[in-house]
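User: FAS1 domain-containing protein. Structure?
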Amino acid sequence: MKTHFSLNALFLTSVLAVFTFACGEPAPTENIVEVASGNENVSTLVEALGAAELASALEGEGPFTVFAPTNAAFEALPEDVLEALLKPENKDALTAILRYHVAASKLTATEIKEALSMATEGYTVETLNGAALIATLEGDAVKLADVQGNTANVTGADLMASNGVIHTIDAVLLPGGVNPAALLGPADIVGVAMDNEQFATLVAAVKAAGLVETLQGEGPFTVFAPVDDAFAALPEGTVESLLEAENKDQLSGILTYHVVADKVDAATLTNAIQNAEEGTYTITTVNGAELTASIQDGKVVLTDAQGNTATVIATDVNASNGIIHAIDAVVMP
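Assistant: Predicted structure:
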């Protein structure tokens, strides 16, 4: 028979534990937030509690058990996720995550292990978030699992406070419905292109030309991005030749002819063409040479310095540092 234990089943044990300090050790006088603030290993958590406006709640009567991710745990989140979580617009997501690390009862390491010794499949920790954590024992170590399948090890136990206890853990746990990476918004120009299978040749060319760092810069940029079929339509051997190291300057010149040092969405470009004399609008590229934009059969068409044309076939692919419009041909300076 499989046995599950809930924190509620340990309530009496927790109440009795209150009297342990009468047997020698003085009761702690600092609350959860004060104890955490005095521990440099969880300073990021303290900052997050402030951003989520949860500090006052954890200064309350309690009791609470806080499974506190260390600074290293927060640093292990995907790049830029922590910075995004601390922004005011993402307060709800941060609050949900932090409340998922708090139980509304005091549970010491000994109590956790005693409960686990009586369970065959761990026990459920009900959190302030409303979602549950599952605690298990691996050897002598307590491990927590969230609803998304992530796990965290308890690395420091029984940091006692006047209104509860803190256990440090080595990972940030996530409740259902929270995807921190989704808070980041779109990637940069290069990242967006890499995620689109239609731009594989373009990405290879950008790398060969040494333009990755440039197009990952602050920008903003508008890139008229030839799809793979556009490169395939060039004379046989052209792409292979351009990708060779000795032709790097030539390749760079071609690619920068597809880039504008500004963010120009489809509506702005269309309006510029319609308001221009003779229905053509001149675009100055990073290359220094110009493209001529016009509207033909309801679509934007680019004409290069050699008279070749490319039709815009997809618009407004947003990136963090600009925008991409896909075109069906490679234009030449």
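DSSP finds 15 helices and 15 strands in the chain. The first helix runs from residue 11 to 17.
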